[in-house]
Design a protein that fits this description.
Blueprint: E1 6-13, H1 19-31, E2 36-41, H2 45-58, E3 63-66, H3 70-79, E4 83-93, H4 99-106, E5 110-114, H5 122-126, E6 129-132, H6 140-152, E7 166-168, E8 177-179
Parallel strand pairs: 1-2, 1-5, 2-3, 4-5, 4-6
Antiparallel strand pairs: 7-8
Helix pairs in contact: 1-2, 1-6
The structure holds S-adenosylmethionine (SAM).
Length: 182
């Protein structure tokens, strides 16, 4: 996997309504090879806590934080030379354009932005790339998973999560989990 840093920015979290889906965005970001997630919208300590628990048990180096001002997150990311990718059904279709190739060619750190309900129109201008995972409405969880999988060409599924207390031994049937007290 490449050495570029990849973060996810989840916009417009609503603690009551989006608890489950925002958790899934974080789980997918971690499991599919991102280095961290930044939540914006309503502050939700429970969400941050439950994801940190996952990292503690299942390992890996994964940063989880909240920032109230998403525009500032994007501004800082770009100031440091990073590239901003907005996943949106209105963007360039990843399957019928060369947008992924152009993103890879930047060689830059990537901030992948996903929305909750309606995203602010300004985001389309602030993003360096507006990318569609197909031009049909679906879900930020699916869009993020597919984008990361295409970016890493499947290698993220073999990623080792250092410092894990729990590790699964893959089985054709049943469950085998190794517990280590580190
Ligand atoms: N109707 C909302 C809008 O117009 O912004 C979209 C809400 S959708 C449930 C939540 C998020 O899922 C979007 O902000 C986007 O990040 C992601 N998403 C949904 N469909 C997508 C697609 N086809 N391609 C890329 N991202 C998508």
């Amino acid at each position: 996997m490449s050495s570029r840093r990849i973060y996810v920015l989840r916009l417009g979290h609503r603690p009551q309504r989006d608890k489950r889906i925002s958790t899934h965005v974080g789980l997918v970001a971690r499991a599919f090879g991102a280095h961290g997630i930044i939540y914006s919208g309503g502050k939700d300590e429970n969400l941050l806590r439950s994801l940190r628990k996952v990292v503690d048990l299942w390992g890996g180096d994964f940063d989880i934080r909240y920032e109230s001002d998403w525009r500032e997150v994007i501004r800082e990311w770009k100031e440091r030379g990073g590239v901003v990718i907005h996943l949106t059904m209105y963007g360039e279709n990843i399957a019928s354009s060369d947008v992924l190739k152009r993103i890879k060619e930047t060689g830059a750190d990537l901030l992948i932005v996903v929305g909750a309900e309606k995203v602010p129109g300004r985001l389309f201008e602030l993003a360096d790339f507006n990318v569609a995972i197909g031009n049909q409405p679906h879900s930020e969880v699916a869009a993020l998973a597919l984008f990361l999988d295409r970016l890493y060409a499947g290698r993220e599924l073999l990623k080792e999560f250092k410092g894990a207390k729990l590790r699964i031994v893959p089985q054709s049937k049943g469950k085998k989990v190794i517990y280590s007290l580190k």
